[in-house]
């Protein structure tokens, strides 16, 4: 029997049974289309992934490594979109394919139009098996359950509502493309965002659309990423797969700092509220437990200790301005390469044999001496105290030379400004941090695109913030992965990304569940 593709479905109801009695049941069509996708994969077809809000491709890289086919991406930021194409859709001449390198506004890009543009000879409904992405959550709390269900039932409704939200667009893509598996990533606060448990509400909508859903919190350090990064992950499978939701088991262990446990407790308040309501289906799954018998978490030194030291800034030869990635920095041959660093050098399809092109840092001349003075683990209050001590030491040196500076003099104020950062210690306690060599790094944020004070190198002899490649290593991007643009956009792309190693762990679970249904 020939069926109308879901994205072209029109519900028809004629009330003259003697002439016609035609009713196209959307749920039946969704069911049939999912079975066809499963059958095609069973017959050896690739499992095709579309990455929404893709950034430069942290999620895509993990799925690519697990054997999925990345068929395309939607990304608003032009440099990130170009980076994604540069790594996943490259033409024979080494340049990214133009059609994939375009930045796209998801609020203006319809699923059918996107797939028709990328793959004109295929039906949009049949082109995507797995949908992944991390849609931003701004303004979502004003939408709520009723609005979500309305959009799920009427996918063009967002156009008529001034509260239109990017999560709604993600759900629109789900409805139109009818994937058999879905992954959504976001910050932990999304569980308790303005009084809303957003993953819970999304799961309710996806359940209505024929999916089994669950969400949890995963910390990247438990999966071999040298970074303590806590994120919410939501998984959904088409009921036709007949599988239950599971998340990857931890492979590494660390006793997380109190701040991470506290953040998790705050995020889970909304989960507890849902559990108290007997009418609610609770989609939350407790995170898989990491235990001390696992491998120790990957440390910062294991991650970046093999990379060449940078000292040009201490020699006065580093200038301000855009840092481009046109100079090869050869690997050192006189250092031990950790198992993790070896993996970053030899990631399949992203190998780097001789060196790296993005080992560049910011010029921050005021703070080099302060970076050297700071102890590993010091944050901004400690840095500020060090700077004040340095200021008084300098005053004492001047006094011993017979130069006394009055506290109201311009020279006194100039010296203070030269040595002491201007930020209030009570307002910016976590703005600075000197990394600890024997521990994973703290969470890398997109704010790296503005400054790198949150990740100061542990080596006092280098007295600097981390380089682009060091940030990539801490986020588990392999050395052969290329970031388009200059230093600041690259830092932003890295900070926004999902760690590829964690993405790979989740992708392997999804692959097992899809293939398990096919065996």
Write up this protein.
This protein folds into two domains: 290 residues, 3-Layer(aba) Sandwich (Rossmann fold); 146 residues, no CATH class. The two termini are 26 Å apart. Strand 1, helix 2 and strand 2 form a beta-alpha-beta unit. With 519 residues, the chain is an alpha/beta fold. The protein has 19 helices and twelve strands. The relative contact order is 0.13. The strands form four sheets. It has a six-stranded mixed sheet, with helices on both faces. It has a two-stranded parallel ribbon with strand order 6-12. The longest helix is centred in the last third of the chain and has 21 residues. The chain is globular.
Per DSSP, what share of the residues sits in E-state strands of 2 or more residues?
A: 5-15%
Give the tally of β-strands.
12
How many alpha or pi helices? 19
CATH homologous superfamily caption of the largest domain: Vaccinia Virus protein VP39
Widest sheet, order of strands:
2-1-3-4-7-5
- Arithmetic mean of pLDDT: 88
């Amino acid at each position: 029997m020939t069926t109308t593709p879901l994205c072209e479905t029109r519900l028809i109801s004629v009330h003259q049974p003697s002439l016609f009695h035609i009713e196209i049941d959307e749920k039946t069509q969704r069911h049939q289309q999912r079975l066809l996708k499963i059958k095609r994969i069973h017959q050896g077809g690739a499992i095709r992934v579309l990455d929404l809000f893709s950034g430069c491709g942290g999620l895509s890289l993990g799925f690519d490594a697990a054997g999925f086919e990345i068929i395309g991406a939607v990304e608003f930021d032009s440099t990130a979109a170009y980076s994604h194409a540069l790594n996943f859709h490259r033409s024979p001449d080494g340049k990214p394919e133009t059609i994939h390198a375009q930045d796209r506004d998801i609020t203006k890009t319809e699923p059918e139009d996107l797939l028709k543009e990328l793959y004109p000879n295929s039906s949009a409904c049949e082109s995507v098996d797995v949908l992944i992405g991390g849609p931003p959550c701004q303004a979502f709390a004003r939408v709520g359950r009723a609005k979500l269900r309305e959009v799920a039932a009427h996918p063009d409704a967002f156009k008529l509502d001034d509260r239109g939200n990017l999560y709604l667009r993600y759900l629109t893509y789900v409805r139109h493309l009818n994937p058999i598996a879905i992954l959504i990533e976001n910050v932990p606060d999304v569980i308790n965002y303005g009084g809303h448990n957003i993953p819970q509400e999304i799961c309710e909508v996806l359940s209505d659309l024929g999916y089994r859903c669950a969400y949890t919190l995963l910390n990247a350090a438990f999966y071999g990423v040298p970074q303590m990064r806590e994120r919410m992950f939501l998984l959904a499978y088409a009921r036709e797969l007949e599988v239950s939701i599971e998340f990857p088991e931890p492979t590494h262990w660390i006793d997380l700092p109190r701040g991470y446990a506290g953040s998790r407790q705050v995020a889970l308040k909304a989960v507890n509220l849902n559990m108290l309501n007997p009418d609610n289906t609770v989609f939350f799954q407790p995170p898989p437990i990491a235990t001390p018998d696992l491998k120790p978490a990957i440390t910062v030194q294991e991650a970046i200790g093999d990379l060449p030291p940078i000292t040009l800034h201490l020699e006065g030869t580093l200038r301000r301005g855009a840092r481009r990635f046109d100079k090869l920095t050869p690997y050192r041959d006189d250092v031990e390469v950790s198992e993790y660093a070896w993996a970053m050098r030899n990631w399949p399809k992203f190998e780097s044999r001789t060196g790296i092109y993005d080992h560049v840092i910011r010029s921050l001349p005021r703070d080099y001496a302060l970076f050297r003075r700071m102890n590993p683990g010091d944050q901004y209050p400690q840095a500020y105290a060090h700077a004040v001590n340095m200021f008084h030491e300098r005053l004492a040196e001047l006094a011993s030379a017979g130069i006394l500076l009055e506290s109201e003099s311009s020279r006194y104020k100039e010296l203070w400004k030269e040595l002491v950062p201007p930020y209030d210690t009570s307002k910016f306690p976590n703005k600075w941090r000197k990394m600890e060599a024997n521990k994973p790094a703290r969470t890398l944020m997109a704010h790296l695109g503005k400054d790198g004070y949150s990740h100061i190198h542990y080596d006092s002899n280098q007295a600097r913030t981390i380089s682009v490649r060091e940030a990539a290593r801490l986020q588990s991007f392999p050395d052969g992965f290329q970031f388009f643009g200059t230093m600041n956009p690259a830092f932003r792309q890295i900070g926004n990304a999902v760690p590829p190693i964690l993405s790979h762990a989740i992708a392997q679970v999804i692959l097992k569940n899809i293939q398990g249904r096919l065996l």
